[in-house]
Every structure is written in structure tokens, then in C-alpha cells.
Design a protein that fits this description.
Low-confidence stretches of chain B: none
Number of strands of chain B: 23
Oligomer: heterodimer
Distance between the termini of chain A: 61 Å
Largest sheet of chain A: 4 strands, antiparallel
Order of helices and strands of chain A: HHHEEEEEHEEEHH
Strand order of the largest sheet of chain A: 1-2-3-4
Radius of gyration of chain B: 26 Å
Structural class of chain B: alpha+beta
Helix content of chain A: 25-40%
Strand order of the largest sheet of chain B: 2-1-5-4-3-6-7
Number of helices of chain A: 6
Mean pLDDT of chain A: 95
Radius of gyration of chain A: 20 Å
Low-confidence stretches of chain A: none
């Protein structure tokens, strides 16, 4: 079984590992304590104190704050309840004209903005690009990854979700409840 | 009394196999890996022998084959199966077909081939029908039974991709056939030989059904030779280990594979739900040479929901997929199972005991009547790959988030979608009939990874042993001359780690009296696989043709010739290159070409990983040096202020100016974007007013009709009235 020092995992996160070690990591059986070391390294790197429960993106973490699990960006911006689709709390820029497509693709590329738009989701806190995807106009914003935090910690890691009151298991999507409130408020 | 192991019928064995798994949740009811525990070294040696037999078969028979598909870019795979058709061991190669052969064996068992036409030692069975386990006509399966004494104890088989199947418009995959009738020679789960030899009728049928029968026949021989090699090795293994040990251990190996899979999932992933939607449009309307059944632009979506369950199993749901249509992009369950197989063997089950054990841990919901489970009897599936490959690439990209969350950054990988297909046919430079699909696309680009850029020119999802074939070989096979084969600058999905760079070939048609090129133009309107964590998707496809050119004159005068797309554009602009008809294609085409015409083929880049302005500037300089990026893109996409230093003849960048530019880009993004909530509310209004393009509305309406469940989800997301439809 492989085991890597905290320094090696730190170098992995900071993209400092040479290819021959990366290759070895790919080929070797996985190290059992990777997650713990990974969280430790990530926690060192963020400028805030909330405990990281699960990294879900280069810039985003599910963290524990006041007994709740919320999504928090590296820059400190808070997206709220992790069970609500964080993409709907970003800033969005939609490329929907040939000119806007040409800014990011070579001149010959022949996207058809009428049939497809390119959505860019941006972190409101720091302007980081968070997610870019092509989709038909009228397409839904998918919830990319909604972890079952309760099962992950309690069943897979064998410990409760640190500091979080709600230990319930299963995937719980609260996005529609959030959207309903937006629409109701708008109607008023 | 049956022909199967223990004198049971094959159907009895298959039913027992399925019943035991259903009742015990263990493969074949095996709760203890007795042989493994008693003598692990013997067990591993046994497994290695089986693995060697399939890999050895693949590597050896490449040299029996004559077709470029097999010899040049390795479009073949071999597998070993239990008597019931479950996969025990597989070779490298086009892994999709490990499972399709399993489906073929089970189809024959379920349809009582044991009685009619009978299954005997030395018999040879072949298939390329979707309803009997195939994907499309091009992928031809050979299966032979393995008998020990007088009992069938397994199957050995191989698949190769035939480059010329006698389809409507030449090549291996028909682009313009709306139904199965133009797809070429169908082999309908047939007994095609006995005593280890093919029947003459079968070989004769191939001779008159393909424009390149010699390639196909030699591939037949390669498949059969490989299958016999596996069979012979299995019999040697049985002599050494004993039949009881063999039968018990092949089943233990599968159960072992199943357990390993569950352990890996819990070790490397996070339980939860992953969701995205693939979308594909194909502008058919108004194309010349089109069958009247294809009358509308194709607008297809394939929503994907992957649930990684708390017990480590995985369920994939495609609810809401568009209905099947009169086009070649339809899939059947066997094709989707093949896609699943190639995905799980790349993402999860790439080492240890790779077999049907992994497959038993993953279930799929393929809505009947949809593009992922077409139920029309005469459905066309010749380019099923154009649906299933991007779909599973999307699944791979979603699951990469699981690896990221657990800290296994070295495993985070964005697969990439299939590129456009080129079929050519007519009279070759030797005055003979020729037809083929040019399979350069077998070496395209992967998406970026969490620790490095995507692979340039060396990846396809369907065949991890990717190879584009030598240009010289394609020149030998078709009346074409390569003027260039180069990377296209800026044609990757940008990112902190960019996707693989797109590349293009430029052909001059040479020495033919009659030739045509048909191009599928898929992904011509949109990238399918998104970027990850802020990286961009790769660009859409495009192609060029220049017909009736002055190339003969340019060559005669010793003028500079075009070698790249850009050269062609520049020379057309300056009128140096003249063409009576010059097109930049953004949809499928079928073009009559002749000597001195130019055909430009583009293979788009992979999706990017991470925010491009977080890319190491040194990597940006490297791309500039290698001609994969231009300075304007270096600045606008990566925020790198760079210049070419004439003295050192190298690209350099200004550290402070780069830092400043990147800060500016962040501010520009914040300034031009709007809160997603505001965007959502305004989009909702547009949808309520049905202000979407007609084709999109039709596509969404079809999905809402075929799937009330998806319609409910769509209405709920946009908070639309219950009766709302487009």
C-alpha cells in the first residue's frame, strides 16, 4: 500500500510534483490517508478558518459554519447551503453571438449561437471562472455534483460530519425550493 | 441434456447465473474466494495466463490482418467469456466491444442456438447487428465456443472495425442513411463456419458486399486466428490446472472483480449525484444528396444523471433523452452497454481483475424509444458513436469531480468527444474501386487533467491505444496526397491545464478519375463535453474544400503550396490559390472531388481544466513556441503579456504586466456578468413566452413528450405551469 508524506500531497496540490512521481502515483495502489492529508493541505491554503468538509472544485469547498454545511469559495465568498445549486448563485455571462464565440475560439470555428450558447459562471467574490459549458438556449442549469455528505462521512469514512448538526444520509437537493422563492418574490 | 458445463443447457446455465446474482448479490453466488484464499499465487498465475492469452491474441493477429484499421491503428479487441457469456478477461484495444461480444453470446443462448443452428466444437459465429449485441455494421464480431471434452466451457472472440462495409456512401459508417438499409452488409448473428474454417458462402458474400473485400476477409481470418489462439491456450490451462479449478476460478475472478470495483469506488469517490446534459444538433435541412426521410435539422439531447450509491454501486439515468430519429446517430442498449464498459475500464476498473465484475456494479436506465434505446425495427445506428462517445465522455468528466474531492488529483481527467468522420470512395490512383473511412480521428485530443494538459493527438475514448495511422499509408489507400498534418493554433479548450490541441490534415486529391468525400460534420455546432472547474470546452468542428483549383499551375511553377488551413485561407484571400468553389463547412457534406482539389480536415481540441488565467505562464510560452497558441490568445484567454525576443529567438513574458492583466480580466468578468438569479428570472420569462428558436422548441417538445418525468423536471426548474409545453 502506498503512503505519501504531507509534503508530497502539498506538492501535488500545488502542482509541484515531477512527472515520474505523478506517474508512480497513478500506477500504485491508492494511499488510504490521502483525504485527511489533502484536507489538511487545503486548509493551510485558504485565508479563512471554517473547517473544510469536502472540496468540490478548485475554488469551492463545502465547509462547516455554525453547525451547517455551506459552500465557500477560496476567496471567502459564501454560496450558502451546499444542497442548493451553487451555479445559480454565481455571476453568469452568456456567449450567444458569433462575435462572442470568436473571442474564445479560432476564427474558423463555426458555433451556432442560435442553437447553442456558451455559459460562463463566475465567482462573485473574486472573478474566477468556475464553470463553462455549451448548452441549448432554454437548457436547465444542472447541479453538477451534489454529495451525499451523510453517507460519505458516516459510512465511508466511519465518522460523523465534523461539527454539522444534520447528519442525515442521502442526496438532498434544495434547489427547487430556492428557485420557488425567487419566482414568488418576483411575482410580488 | 445440454452441451454446457455439467451437461446443462446453455440457457439453464445463464438462468442459474442470473438467479444466483439476483438472490445473493454475489457473482454466481460465490461468497468466498476459496481458490484465491487457499493459494493466492496459483490464483494470480492462473489469471495472468488467461490475460496473456487475450492480449497475446490481439498482438499476434494484428499481423494476420491486412486492413489499415487493424494493422495501423489497432481497431480490434479480444475477450474470453464464461459459458453464459460473462467476460472473464479482455485484451487492450477497442474495449467497447468486450461487452458487445458478451451480449452476442447471451443473445445466441437466449435464442436457443444450442438447438438451431446448433453449437459444436469448431463452429464460428459472426454478427454486426445491433439487436444481437452489435453497435453498427462496421464492428464485426467473431465468437467461437470453447469445448472441453464434450462440454461447452466458454467462448473466445474478437471484434475488428471494418473500414469498408458496402454502405451507401463508401466507408465504414454511413452518414446519410436514415434507416438500416444503407448501412452496408449486415451479418445477422450467423453461424459462418465450422471446423475452424469459414463457409465459402460467407466469404463470397463479403466479396460482393464490400468495396474492399480483401481487407475484410483478412480481418475475418485475424479474428478467427485470435479466437483459436485463446481457445487453445484455455485448453492448455485446463490441462495444467484441471477443469474443476478452471470453472470455479473464472467465476471467482469475476466476483473478485466485482468486489475490487466496490472497494475502489469507496476508496476513491464520494457518494452523491452528478448531473449534466449533452446536446447535439445536426443541420441537415437543405443538404444535397439527402434521403427525404431526413427532413429536419436534428436537435438531440442526452441528459445524464449518475448516482454513486452509498453501497458503492452506480446507477446512470438517461431519462429525458431525445427520441430516436431517421439519422445514423441512434444507439441500442448493446451500444450503450459497450460505452459504459469502455468508460468504467478507463475510469475505475483499469487494473487488477478487469472483467464483468465491474459491470455488475453499474446499472443504466435507457428510456425505450429514445436515442439511447431506439426501438424502431429498421433504425440506423451507423454513427451511434457520435451519441454514445460524447455521452460517456460527459459521464467521465462528471465523475472526475469525485476523484478531485478525494484528493486523487493524478486521476482527474476529462475525456473527449468523437470527432467528425470522413468517408471517401470512387476510383483510386491504381484505377481500382476504393472505399474507406479515414480513421485519423482515432488519435484526437483528450481533455485537460488536474495535473497536466490534455493529450495532443493521441486519445480517443473508444480505443485507449490510440493511433492515427501513418499519412503515407492513407496516401497508399486513397487517391490523396498530404500537403500537411499540423496542430491548429488556439484550437484547444483553454484552461489552467488546457485540453489537447486540435489538429488538421490538408489533402490534395491526386490521380483519380472519380472520387467523393462524405463528412459527418458532427460537433459542427457545439462542443459536447464541457470544461471542468472553469476550463473551456473545445471548439466546434469545421472543414474546408476547394474545388477546381489552380494547384496544377502552382506546382508547375514551383510556387509555395498551402500546408495548413490558414495557408489556404491566406492564399485564397490573396488570390494566389484559385478555386471555382471554396467552402468552409460547418455541417455535413458530400462532395464530388477530383485531382488537384483540396480537402481540409479538422479534429477539434479537448476541453480545458481550471480557470485559464491561473495557467502557469511558462506553459503558455511553451504553447507559443510549439505553435499551438498565438500571442493574441495568450493575452486574452490566459492574461499573459508576452512578446517574441528577437535576440534569444524565444517567447518571453512580462511578470508584472501579466499579473496586472490577469487582475483586469477578473474585473472585466465581474463587470460584464450578471447575477445568475437575475439571468434565471429573465430566461424564465423568455421560456414562458416561448422565445426560443423553432428547432430548439421542437427538440424540447419531443423530449417532454417522450418523457413526462423529464418534462416535470424541466417545468419545475423553470417554474412553468403544469400544462406548459413548446
Amino acid at each position: 500500500m502506498s503512503e505519501y508524506s504531507l509534503e508530497v500531497i502539498r506538492d501535488l496540490v500545488n502542482r509541484k510534483l515531477p512527472w515520474y512521481i505523478l506517474k508512480e502515483m497513478m500506477s500504485a495502489p491508492k494511499d488510504k490517508d490521502r483525504f485527511d492529508k489533502y484536507i489538511k493541505v487545503l486548509q493551510e491554503k485558504v485565508p479563512w478558518k471554517e473547517r473544510i468538509l469536502l472540496p468540490i472544485h478548485e475554488h469551492l469547498y463545502i465547509v462547516e459554519k455554525n453547525g451547517e454545511a455551506i459552500v465557500k469559495a477560496k476567496c471567502g465568498y459564501e454560496f450558502g447551503d451546499y444542497r442548493e445549486n451553487w451555479l445559480l448563485k454565481t455571476l453568469i455571462y452568456v456567449r450567444d453571438t458569433p462575435e462572442k464565440f470568436r473571442e474564445v475560439y479560432p476564427i474558423l470555428a463555426t458555433h451556432e449561437p442560435k442553437l447553442q450558447e456558451l455559459r460562463e459562471h463566475i465567482c462573485p467574490g473574486c472573478g474566477a471562472m468556475l464553470y463553462v459549458y455549451g448548452i441549448n438556449p432554454g437548457g436547465m442549469v444542472n447541479f453538477l455534483f451534489l454529495p451525499d455528505l451523510g453517507s460519505f462521512y458516516n459510512d465511508w469514512l466511519g465518522k460523523p460530519i465534523p461539527g454539522v448538526k444534520d447528519q442525515s444520509k442521502g442526496v438532498q437537493d434544495k434547489t427547487i425550493e430556492m428557485i420557488k422563492k425567487w419566482v414568488e418574490k418576483e411575482k410580488k | 441434456m445440454g452441451i454446457g458445463y455439467g451437461k446443462k443447457t446453455l440457457m439453464e446455465l445463464l438462468e442459474e447465473d442470473e438467479r444466483l446474482f439476483r438472490e445473493t448479490k454475489h457473482y454466481y453466488g460465490i461468497k468466498e474466494l476459496k481458490n484465491k484464499e487457499e493459494d493466492p499465487l496459483k490464483y494470480e498465475r492462473f489469471h495472468s495466463r488467461l490475460l496473456t492469452s487475450v492480449i497475446g491474441a490481439r498482438e499476434s493477429v494484428k499481423f494476420v490482418a491486412a486492413s489499415p484499421a487493424v494493422r495501423e491503428y489497432g481497431e480490434l479487441v479480444f475477450g474470453l467469456y464464461t459459458p453464459e457469456g460473462d467476460t472473464v478477461a479482455l485484451s487492450t484495444g477497442i474495449l467497447v466491444h468486450v461487452h458487445t461480444m458478451s451480449a452476442f453470446a447471451k443473445w445466441m443462448i437466449r435464442n436457443n442456438y444450442e438447438e438451431e443452428p446448433g453449437i459444436r466444437n469448431g463452429d464460428v459465429f459472426a454478427n454486426n447487428e445491433t439487436w444481437a449485441g452489435g453497435v453498427h455494421t462496421a464492428d464485426v464480431q467473431t465468437l467461437i465456443p470453447i469445448f472441453y471434452r464434450d462440454e461447452l466451457i466458454g467462448w473466445a472472440g474478437g471484434v475488428t472495425h471494418e473500414l469498408e462495409v458496402g454502405a451507401h456512401e463508401h466507408g465504414s459508417m454511413s452518414i446519410f442513411s436514415p434507416e438500416r438499409f444503407g448501412e452496408g452488409y449486415h451479418i445477422s448473428a450467423e453461424k459462418v463456419g465450422e471446423n475452424d474454417e469459414y463457409y465459402n458462402y460467407y466469404l463470397n458474400k463479403i466479396r460482393v458486399s464490400s468495396r474492399m473485400p480483401n481487407w475484410w476477409i483478412m480481418d475475418e481470418k485475424a479474428r478467427l486466428a485470435g479466437s483459436i489462439m485463446i481457445r487453445n491456450e484455455v485448453l492448455r490451462v485446463i490441462e495444467e490446472f484441471g477443469i474443476d479449478y478452471y470453472m470455479r476460478t473464472i467465476r471467482e475472478i469475476i466476483e473478485d472483480g466485482r468486489r475490487e470495483f466496490l472497494i475502489k469506488i469507496k476508496e476513491r469517490f464520494v457518494p452523491g449525484r452528478f448531473k449534466a446534459s449533452g446536446f447535439q444538433c445536426q443541420p441537415w435541412k437543405g443538404l444535397p444528396h439527402l434521403h427525404p426521410l431526413i427532413r429536419e435539422d436534428m436537435v438531440n439531447q442526452v441528459p445524464v444523471e449518475v448516482n454513486v450509491n452509498a453501497d458503492g454501486t452506480i446507477h446512470i439515468d438517461f431519462e429525458g433523452s431525445s427520441p430516436w430519429g431517421y439519422h445514423p446517430y441512434n444507439c441500442t442498449p448493446s451500444a450503450m452497454d459497450g460505452g459504459l464498459w469502455v468508460t468504467i475500464t478507463q475510469i475505475f476498473a483499469y487494473d487488477g481483475k478487469v472483467n464483468d465484475g465491474a459491470y455488475l456494479c453499474v446499472t443504466q436506465h435507457l428510456p425505450k424509444g429514445s436515442i439511447v434505446n431506439a426501438d424502431y425495427k429498421y433504425v440506423a445506428t451507423s454513427i451511434a458513436w457520435a451519441t454514445l462517445i460524447p455521452t460517456y465522455a460527459l459521464i467521465g468528466s462528471l465523475l472526475a469531480q469525485g476523484y478531485f474531492a478525494r484528493g486523487f488529483l493524478e486521476e482527474v481527467f476529462i475525456p473527449s468527444a468523437a470527432n467528425s468522420l470522413y468517408n471517401g470512395g470512387g476510383i483510386n490512383q491504381f484505377g481500382e474501386t476504393v472505399g474507406l473511412s479515414v480513421f485519423e480521428m482515432a488519435a484526437c485530443q483528450s481533455g485537460g487533467r488536474a495535473v497536466m494538459d490534455g493529450i495532443d493527438c493521441g486519445y480517443t475514448l473508444w480505443n485507449p491505444e490510440s493511433d492515427q495511422g501513418n499519412a503515407e499509408l492513407w496516401e497508399l489507400l486513397a487517391p490523396i496526397v498530404y500537403l500537411g498534418r499540423r496542430f491548429i493554433p488556439n484550437s484547444m479548450g483553454h484552461g489552467m491545464y488546457r485540453g489537447g490541441t486540435g489538429w488538421a490534415s490538408l489533402w490534395m486529391i491526386w490521380n483519380t478519375s472519380r472520387f467523393n468525400i462524405a463528412c459527418s460534420g458532427q460537433i459542427s455546432k457545439q462542443p459536447w463535453v464541457p470544461g471542468l472547474f472553469g476550463g473551456y470546452p473545445g471548439p466546434a468542428w469545421h472543414g474546408i474544400t476547394a474545388i477546381d483549383t489552380n494547384m496544377a499551375e502552382l506546382i508547375q511553377k514551383g510556387e509555395t503550396l498551402p500546408h495548413t488551413f490558414n495557408d489556404v485561407l491566406e492564399m485564397v484571400k490573396s488570390n494566389k490559390l484559385q478555386a471555382k468553389k471554396f467552402d468552409i463547412h460547418n455541417r455535413p457534406y458530400w462532395e464530388d472531388v477530383k485531382t488537384y482539389d483540396l480537402v481540409g480536415i479538422f479534429y477539434t481540441g479537448g476541453a480545458g481544466y481550471g480557470d485559464p488565467i491561473e495557467r502557469d505562464p511558462e506553459l503558455v510560452l511553451k504553447d507559443l513556441e510549439e505553435g499551438k497558441l498565438t500571442a493574441d490568445f495568450a493575452e486574452k484567454m490566459y492574461g499573459v503579456k508576452c512578446s517574441f525576443d528577437e535576440k534569444s529567438r524565444k517567447w518571453v513574458y512580462d511578470v508584472e504586466a501579466t499579473k496586472k492583466r490577469r487582475e483586469e480580466i477578473r474585473k472585466e468578468r465581474l463587470a460584464k456578468a450578471v447575477p445568475a438569479k437575475d439571468w434565471y428570472l429573465s430566461e424564465r420569462e423568455k421560456i414562458l413566452r416561448k422565445e426560443l428558436p423553432d428547432d430548439i422548441k421542437r427538440g424540447l417538445r419531443e423530449c417532454m413528450t417522450i418523457s413526462p418525468k423529464w418534462a416535470k423536471e424541466y417545468r419545475e426548474f423553470w417554474q412553468l405551469p403544469e400544462e406548459f409545453t413548446f
